């Protein structure tokens, strides 16, 4: 509960079973304020990297609109849906021993049902000392279905099964049969990696739902070679983002492990196209197990109050 922050239980209400997205009753904190914001003050360790996620349920609270901030950095806006819960998630480096997660009133009273703070690998924000990342999409390429999260994912990232290109060929392997030694903390759970998509020539993933305002983005692509008979040089491909070559002759097995990930940084307005193309001379087409898209937002320092 959030009673340690807000002791007035009268502003805590319950969404009934027929309104809640998961088919069960759910408590919601509804802030009846004239203006301003309400903040949850959460303890952090300075310089550590965290995932923070708020869940905003659908139902009779639809048609609401308010802002969500980390400190004073705007992470997104809640425009409620009548059909599904909305999650807003960010990744940041703590600059002090606490972080404020705030709901800022616009036209209607803000509300929230869940708030989660988890440590995540340093690699997410490596090279971005003054930025916060907003999650756009986290994709488990096993196809539509249940999602994978804690306790399978120690960082409680939510890996949703997504619809895949109809031409792509699914691959899978029994988790117990995979020799998996990633040599890095930057990896999805094995349950995510044990499925993949491949094609003899090309894989293409299109997202047309990015914000129309230009932003920097960071994409993480995750690869686990599921064909144990392949050797380095037998599956080589090029990686393009919005028709720009980002990686040439990428080989999952080139570094002596069957697992590899890569980070792609780019600017985009409105849409994203990630394309993996079989390289000249390769015996096999590209493969991909999972990927994440994050928007890079500048971290805004809070103004110090003086007497």
Automatic annotation (TrEMBL):
GO terms for molecular function: kinase activity. It is a single-pass membrane protein. Pfam families: Malectin_like. Residues 11-296 form the Malectin-like domain. It is found in: Membrane. Keywords: Kinase, Membrane, Receptor, Signal, Transferase, Transmembrane, Transmembrane helix. GO terms for cellular component: membrane. It comes from the Eukaryota. Its main location: membrane. InterPro entries: Malectin-like_Carb-bd_dom. This is Symbiotic receptor-like kinase.
């Amino acid at each position: 509960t959030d009673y340690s922050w807000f002791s007035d239980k009268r502003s805590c209400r319950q969404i009934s079973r027929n309104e809640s997205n998961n088919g069960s009753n759910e408590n919601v904190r509804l802030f009846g304020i004239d203006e301003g914001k309400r903040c949850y003050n959460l303890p952090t360790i300075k310089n550590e990297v965290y995932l923070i996620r708020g869940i905003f349920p659908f139902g009779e609270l639809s048609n609401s609109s308010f802002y969500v901030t980390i400190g004073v950095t705007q992470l997104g806006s809640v425009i409620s849906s009548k059909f599904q819960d909305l999650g807003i998630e960010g990744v940041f480096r703590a600059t002090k021993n606490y972080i404020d997660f705030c709901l800022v009133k616009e036209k209607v009273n803000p509300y929230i049902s869940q708030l989660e703070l988890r440590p995540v690998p340093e690699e997410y924000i490596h090279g971005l000392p003054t930025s916060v990342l907003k999650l756009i999409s986290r994709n488990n390429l096993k196809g539509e279905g249940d999602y994978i999260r804690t306790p399978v994912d120690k960082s409680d990232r939510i890996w949703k099964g997504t619809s895949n290109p109809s031409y792509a060929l699914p691959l899978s392997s029994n988790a117990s049969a995979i020799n998996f030694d990633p040599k890095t903390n930057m990896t999805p759970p094995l349950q995510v990696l044990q499925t993949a998509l491949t094609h003899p020539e090309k894989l293409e993933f299109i997202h047309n739902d990015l914000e129309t305002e230009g932003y920097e983005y960071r994409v993480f692509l995750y690869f686990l070679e599921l064909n144990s008979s392949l050797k380095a040089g037998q599956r080589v491909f090029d990686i393009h983002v919005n028709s720009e070559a980002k990686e040439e002759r990428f080989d999952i097995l080139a570094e002596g492990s069957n697992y590899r990930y890569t980070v792609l940084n780019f600017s985009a307005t409105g849409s994203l196209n990630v394309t993996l193309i079989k390289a000249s001379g390769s015996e096999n087409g590209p493969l991909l197990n999972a990927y994440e898209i994050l928007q890079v937002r500048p971290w805004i320092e809070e103004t110090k109050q003086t007497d």
